[in-house]
Amino acid sequence: MGVVVKVPGGWDVPGSEEGWAGERGAGGEGQCVVPFPGPQGTMAEARQAATFRLDLGQGTPGRRWWNPALKEVGSAGLRSWRRSLAQCKDDILSGACPAGLASGLFLFAAIQGSRFMQLDPSLGLVDWIKASLPDWGVRWLPGFQGAVAATIFAGGLWTALLLTLHVVLRLLLRYQGWLSEPRGTLSLPTRSWLALVRIFSGRRPTLYTYQRSLPHLPLPSTVGTVAKYLESVRPLLSDEDFQALSSQAQVFLHTEAPRLQSLLGLKAWWAANYVSDWWGEYVYLRSRSPLLGNSNFYILDFLSVAPTPLQAARAGNAVYAMMRFREQLGRGEIEPATLLGMRPLCSAQYRQMFNTTRIPGVSGDRLYHVRDGCSRHVVVLHRGRFFRLGTHGGLGGHLLSPRVLEQQLQYILDDSAPAQPTEEHLAALTAAPRALWAQARASLQAGDRSSKAPLEVVEGAAFFVCLEETPGPSRTSPELDERAQSVLVGTGHSSGHMGLNVEHSWADTPVPSHMWEAILAAECFELGYAADGHCRGTPNPTVGPPERLLWMLPEEVAASIPLALREAQALARDTDCHILPFTHFGRGFTRRCRIPGSSFVQLALQLARFRDQGSFCLTYEACVTRSFHEGRTETVRPCTVEACAFVRAMEDPRLTDAQRLALFQVAAEKHWALCRAALTGEGVDRHLFCLYLVSQLLRLPSPFLTQVRAERWKLSTSQSATHQPQLFDPASHPDYVCCGGGFGPADDDGYGVSYVFMGESMVTFHISCRVSSPDTDSRRFGQHIQDAMLDVATLFGLGAGPSTRARPGEAAREASRGPEPQQAPSAPRDLEY
């Protein structure tokens, strides 16, 4: 038995290998202070970025070159301002600002009270405002004009206070010195900065308190970006190829770059973020490839434990916890995510976590969002049948209890009515190429009410739940692989566990990951289960059963379903997933080595990939840029000259461990320098992406940018969001720790690798590749990763030779006892996110 939850609500779901189309939430749309060592970002974006192409044709020289680009820049700015103004009212009413509405009311009462006591804290301004007011003919109402004047003064004073707090916070949040602090120490400037941020943030900052105070993403110089790009590809090119590329880059800097950069600078000044809206639009929403295994990513629950064997009970607690989380989001009660416990991150992505669906279009998709009050149901899919499950009931419209939700879900499981022939594989359409799904959806929309009504129910749901029939649980390692395969592309196995399949365009991995951890913590430690495995509480027989959605499909839609199903099944069969629980050591060991965990793993991955393929490749590592307003991600390129030198040293028997360790420390420092650059908006790839997009909008061909866009990412990596210490305690409850998630490979001949630090002594790797590629094998690469991690640990004094590998339990105990590894002389501080 298993439950697969799709976040947020939408129904782009693939067909499984067994033919149960739609038994996954794989394309719909849709936390907190957590430890975070190094870059952490999204999962499946590398493939979307690599396959992005935009060809608007080529124009002729003249003033008309500027028209399409200026129009796009102007539209981006207007969209940004409209979003900001639309959110302003909600933020003030919910107190999402350093000085909330309550402070405004208090200030108003204080001004009015001082007037009653014949005091004038306005220094005569209230009297001046009163004298300036028109005569409204209310002389019979004494003090009316004075009250109005005092109200105007209080409102102006409160507005000035808000603006002052925002300006001061924005200036404070530009400080980046904390990124260079050594572990275990904070300089006086950083301590002062933290204290000032705390003071100007108010007593209880909410999720959106910092939104308007976050700095804008800076626009790097083209000279600096091109220099960093050339440095990143140097180890991958021959001397002749590198010289040719360098010459091409110099031509670009002196010809196309000034014009492109000036227009991009205009957007950086005019819009909230010069990257994010174009990134979402052109990389995700305009992609015509199937979402299945390409854009979507998955998150699992626990490695082995299942809190209850009852499928409906787990689903009931999960639905209740997620709907309650949605209510907390609406009230702004979720704590803002931060770095270092105080550096706030952008929370814009949370606004579309629920009630959001990616609507397909012929040339581009769009995100459809409904307000919480208009979406009081979820859609459940079981054995090809769709059900509308109302989540609220009673006179007050309160959220149903977990036990009542379990009762409703059990009704669906017990319903033996078969799916209609045309309905059974209907959801496979959402795993088809986007143009095919758009045409099918348009036919549904053009039909009568019987075909449109179920579609409206599905697209208006808070989120999507899939219930599947599977064998009993297993604790073997292949079972983990089956779970990953099941949630990512659909194979019909979940073994008593839950999983989350998330469409990527609306948000990056940390946002749904933090929500998912909150759901798992609530399920296990707060809501819990009765002794018989059911949800706590009592059923309510007065609540009616869920509503079965009945579809009347036009002929053209029915004809498209077999085509979509075959493509979905082919994609599923061609995706290979492997989960490697690395139990020898974890963050505790890397911390004692004074090496950031991400740098340690990334260099081990370079060593593993070299052993697997015998060569180096362009490597993608996602890194968040949410410290800026509406920030999303940047790319770190870990395959550096220093990393390659270290890898070659590891394979050279003539060198000593001391020499290898020295090269490792140089490579780790280089990697962390790249991470710092990406975190502070000084990365390479997003700037080049925007320059390329502007060149296409200008119809100005650029051979250099075309060469950049042709690169293949044969190793795509991401660090999954790590655990929230206030929710999980790996030391006390080692089985109840989220094991992260993964994504498909960015290149058909490459690997996709996601990893998560599970407590102090474990790292879990999620590896994927294509079955059809003769060069890749996920399990072989997993073994190379394990060997590389142990070999690198040997340099720091952890016995990781052949004898240790034969006794993994002993190695884990040795790491957990805390050996005294050789330390880097100066190590950067691990971030807390």
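(the above was protein one; protein two follows)
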Amino acid sequence: MAAAPAAAGSGAGRGRRAAATVAAWGGWGGRPRPVNILLQLRQGQLTGRGLVRAVQFTETFLTERDKQSKWSGIPQLLLKLYATSHLHSDFVECQNILKDISPLLSMEAMAFVTEERKLTQETTYPNTYIFDLFGGVDLLVEILMRPTVSLRGQKLKISDDMSKDCLSILYNTCVCTEGVTKRLAEKNDFVIFLFTLMTSKKTFLQTATLIEDILGVKKEMIRLDEVPNLSSLVSNFDQQQLANFCRILAVTISEMDTGNDDKHTLLAKNAQQKKSLSLGPSAAEINQAALLSIPGFVERLCKLATRKVSESTGTASFLQELEEWYTWLDNALVLDALMRVANEESEHSQASIVLSPPGASEENGLPHSSARTQLPQSMKIMHEIMYKLEVLYVLCVLLMGRQRNQVHRMIAEFKLIPGLNNLFDKLIWRKHSASALVLHGHNQNCDCSPDITLKIQFLRLLQSFSDHHENKYLLLNNQELNELSAISLKANIPEVEAVLNTDRSLVCDGKRGLLTRLLQVMKKEPAESSFRFWQARAVESFLRGTTSYADQMFLLKRGLLEHILYCIVDSECKSRDVLQSYFDLLGELMKFNVDAFKRFNKYINTDAKFQVFLKQINSSLVDSNMLVRCVTLSLDRFENQVDMKVAEVLSECRLLAYISQVPTQMSFLFRLINIIHVQTLTQENVSCLNTSLVILMLARRKERLPLYLRLLQRMEHSKKYPGFLLNNFHNLLRFWQQHYLHKDKDSTCLENSSCISFSYWKETVSILLNPDRQSPSALVSYIEEPYMDIDRDFAEE
């Protein structure tokens, strides 16, 4: 699934280094004293002692210094703000002062996100920096949190407009001044309090944007169960607010530790899992549970994900949100691109949109113009795409969480899959228009494009939905389910129980199910497309688990095997990720299936083609080992069957003949063991260890295990490194025992995918690790005493 999405425009990376900024301002007024004041304030900010706020200076002093330093009157304004924001204040004057401060900071923030800022490498933002340095950020936090303070038993209140001004100024300061967002993130009570400001529609978008930035840099994940009245808060969101809220949820429900990444070692993962067991559920797991306990939450997400463009919020409210985006610079690049779309289309029609600058709008935020009620269709589509991105991500994370089965049931019940099927052609996999939305510095094929990101998120969701779950048959329509039954009937094999149990009222409708639609676009995908990897992963997840002949034939009849072979052989694909996904898919498609091997031999019908195929396999066994494993398992099954059709395939298939040779198997075995070590094992390459075990388990079945170990010993000696391979293998198998004997899911996957009982896996490993040097099937029997190194501690340092 991939990891969670980064907070857009996080404040941590926006600013310039504070020390460099102070140095750049050293020449203000030509005198050193203002710089000394700034340095003292900076020191006070870091230590909490000494000069920390404007209130510690007299107004006369600040006015005098302002003449020299050009501080734009910000320290004096902060002094007045402090004086007018005390507990007994009516806040009227306070709000007027905020309105004086706001434009001084918003202009800098606007400059920060415009293209022009790239032209000046050393651009500084003195107003936002001075505002923060003289204690403005801390003062605004105190003002915003005044409602949490009781005065004579009554809670203080401040207006939504005033909260909005405070949030605007805070956000602009975060945009331009490094470190502000991190400091706010450390104020946990403030972060939790911000959620309560989302109850008002006036302050919702500003609050959500600030929270998203803060959570993006927060070291420790917040717990949603600490948010007051979370269920009521979320339940009262309209659909537009809920979609925006998903941007925040993306940060709160994804594990902060990247230990789930394929590149992280299994040693590190195991250590983290042991630690997690002692600590209890993680914050992300607690947050997922909190959301799932909210009545109707998943149902509303499914409705958002499957909503058609015509059902989206009306034009006026969308334009008002665009107005907010204009003010809230986090989305300025997106807005700029949206407006470019509108401008391009307005050349061909009168459906143009003109956004007024902040402060120039009428009471409702929209100037009176008939053009304001018209919106280009492409902009409506982009609006919906950007919402669906966030919603699909949240659903995908929930599908991979502890409550997976609960989420699966709800997603099926609320018809997410048939809903996405109906959107497939017109929205998800729509053709790019000439004015398709792209961000600055990118193109339509860039992974940053919302169009592209939506497709990838959609494919990730399908992968998570199908993986080892019987609900995968909801990806088909009724006619396609009948086809599966007919395939089983014709082959005289029992129907798959999950197919029989599928609720036909929840499957896809229309002429084609979602899986078939995916196959169609997959076969049309350009060779260099970044989608190939995700498409193959999504289809492979449909085949994972216990091998189903009917599922395989369903895909074979649609030309999937020929497409994969074309990509591997004829297009000579160079991408390692795409090759790995195609080899994995090919292995699942062909495993134990005689018809698939016949089709393979028909396509790879010359020695030249076969050599290209072998070259691709041998170029990286980490990528191709799952195919090697599936072909090896299939060969073993075919050799034990008495059937004319099978005998014909065994005699004719180049691939089966190649794998059947002992030298070929030994070559694979030697390389598979040699390319991995305990310290470098990851979720991606541990399959090499399991494939080597499959080869040896099948050898054990034929009572040839001692022969294979003896051949490995000879190969070691031929390389002039006696013991190096078998010692490494011994350590790998010790780790295998620690890793798999305590993880039920992994062991079940091994058993289902290989059709070899897990007890046989365990027995084979135990036999290989037998310490008796007299045992002909023990690794130690083939490691000479001087080269013995089997007790090494492989705990990660």
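Reviewer note on protein two: Residues 661-796 form one domain.
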